[in-house]
């Protein structure tokens, strides 16, 4: 399930989702911002599949690291993980958004992006 799968993430993003300022971005209080952005939900699936590298800014702090992709996980596992990070640490799915499904992940898997392309695609979300 999602909580067990999150063990693969917590070494960087921490068990409480707070990340490490300036090194690993927070997921607590931040995943809902991604989901609320236009295109953010689809982009979040792509990030989990393909990872990301290059400079980003989260809540006014800069990061310039490498996030691995997790395409070795199944569609159902990635959906469970996405639902976990969307509902932990006070995070909630934005109003009107339903839980992630395996089919939704499957639809993105066909695309094959590089980690740099995921960073490029992030710019369109307008996150600050
Ligand atoms: C970025 C989730 C595993 C390092 C992110 C972001 C999310 C996320 C949602 C995007 C933040 C944003 O762009 O606003 C996850 C999940 C993981 C995972 C769910 C487990 C499946 C890891 C691991 C590492 C890591 C294991 C360290 C080896 C990073 C870094 C960034 C990032 C450095 C920023 C990348 C950049 O600067 O371009 N992660 N992550 N993540 N993650 Fe992870």
Number of strands: 2
Shape: globular
Number of domains: 1
Identify the bound ligands: protoporphyrin IX containing FE
Under CATH, the homologous superfamily reads: Cytochrome c-like domain
Low-confidence stretches: none
Mean pLDDT: 97
Amount of beta strand: 5-15%
CATH class: Mainly Alpha
Quote the CATH topology. Answer: Cytochrome Bc1 Complex, Chain D, domain 2
Q: Which CATH architecture?
A: Orthogonal Bundle
The major sheet is characterized as:
2 strands, antiparallel
Give, in spatial order, the strands making up the sheet with the most strands.
Answer: 1-2
The number of helical runs is 7
Q: Compute the separation of the termini in Å.
A: 31 Å
Helix/strand-derived category reads: alpha+beta
Radius of gyration: 13 Å
Instruction: Give the SSE order as H and E letters.
Output: HHHHEEHHH
Helix content: 40-55%
Architecture overview:
The chain has one domain (2-125): Orthogonal Bundle (Cytochrome Bc1 Complex, Chain D, domain 2). Helices cover 42% and strands 11% of the residues. The protein is built from 7 helices and 2 strands; from the N terminus they run H-H-H-H-E-E-H-H-H. The protein has helices at 2-5, 10-13, 31-36, 40-50, 75-87, 102-109, 115-122; strands at 52-58, 61-67. A hairpin with a 2-residue loop joins strand 1 (52-58) and strand 2. Helix 4 (40-50) crosses helix 6 (102-109) and helix 4 (40-50) runs antiparallel to helix 7 (115-122). The termini are far apart. The model has no long low-confidence stretch (mean pLDDT 97). It binds protoporphyrin IX containing FE. Residues 8-9, 11-13, 24-25, 27, 31, 34, 47-48, 52-54, 56, 58, 63-68, 70, 81, 85, 119, 122, 127 line the site of protoporphyrin IX containing FE.
């Amino acid at each position: 399930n999602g909580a067990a799968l999150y063990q693969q993430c917590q070494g960087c993003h921490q068990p409480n989702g707070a990340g490490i300022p300036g090194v690993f971005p927070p997921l607590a209080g931040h995943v809902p911002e991604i989901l609320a952005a236009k295109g953010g939900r689809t982009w979040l699936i792509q990030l989990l599949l393909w990872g990301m590298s290059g400079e980003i800014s989260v809540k006014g702090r800069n990061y310039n690291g490498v996030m691995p992709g997790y395409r070795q996980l199944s569609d159902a596992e990635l959906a469970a993980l996405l639902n976990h990070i969307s509902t932990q640490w006070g995070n909630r799915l934005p109003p009107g958004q339903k839980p992630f499904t395996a089919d939704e992940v499957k639809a993105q898997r066909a695309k094959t992006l590089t980690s740099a392309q995921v960073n490029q695609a992030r710019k369109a979300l307008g996150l600050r």
